[in-house]
Design a protein that fits this description.
Number of helices: 6
Mean pLDDT: 95
Number of strands: 7
Low-confidence stretches: none
Helix content: 25-40%
CATH class: Alpha Beta
Structural class: alpha/beta
Order of helices and strands: EHEHEEHEHEHHE
CATH architecture: 3-Layer(aba) Sandwich
Radius of gyration: 15 Å
Largest sheet: 7 strands, parallel
Strand content: 15-25%
Length: 177
């Protein structure tokens, strides 16, 4: 049973308004299902949109942010719990430990770093948490296609579908909660 969901996403909003729309819908869904949001602690971009939607829905939000990003990502001052840690490694470790599953929304390098670390730890049996990709308007089509190339070329130990569930709209997540 999923009681806490890690959300990895951009601290920017991107150019497609559906990125923020889906983040907001996801936040509302988490609040409605009483699933605690575990995320990077920022108040800007998609990151801020999902946190604000959870809070607006009466849900609980835990943010984990390294000291060096306190100003850059503009930490969220209105969340349930903000943990300030020393470095990115500690942040990621705590994000993984505190969640029961993770969902990846559109984002940049940091989002991909978190996705691939979660996948690697999953493959190495460090954890067995479900990993979802919210593929808003095909944002991750090329990435999923490349993962399938890695599988077809014999570089993965399992099928892509055994490690990642790709959804296209937030409501599809309901079937897995």
């Amino acid at each position: 049973m999923i009681k806490a969901m890690a959300v990895f996403c951009g601290s920017k909003s991107g150019d497609n308004p559906n990125f923020v729309n889906h983040a907001t819908a996801l936040g509302r869904l988490l609040a409605r299902k009483q699933i605690r949001l575990i995320y990077g602690g920022g108040n800007k971009g998609i990151m801020g949109a999902v946190a604000n939607a959870v809070l607006d829905g009466g849900g609980l939000v835990t943010g984990i942010i390294p000291r060096l990003l306190m100003e850059w990502e503009h930490h969220h001052e209105g969340i349930t719990l903000l943990m300030v840690v020393e470095d990115m490694h500690t942040r990621k470790k705590l994000l993984y430990e505190k969640c029961d599953a993770a969902i990846i929304l559109p984002g940049g390098f940091g989002t991909l770093d978190e996705l691939f670390e979660m996948l690697t730890w999953n493959q190495l049996n460090i954890h067995s948490k479900q990993i979802f990709i919210l593929n808003t308007d095909g944002f991750y089509d090329a990435l999923v296609a490349h993962l399938r190339v890695m599988e077809a070329q014999g570089f993965l130990y399992d099928r892509v579908e055994d490690r990642i569930t790709v959804i296209t709209v937030p409501d599809e997540l309901t079937a897995y909660l």
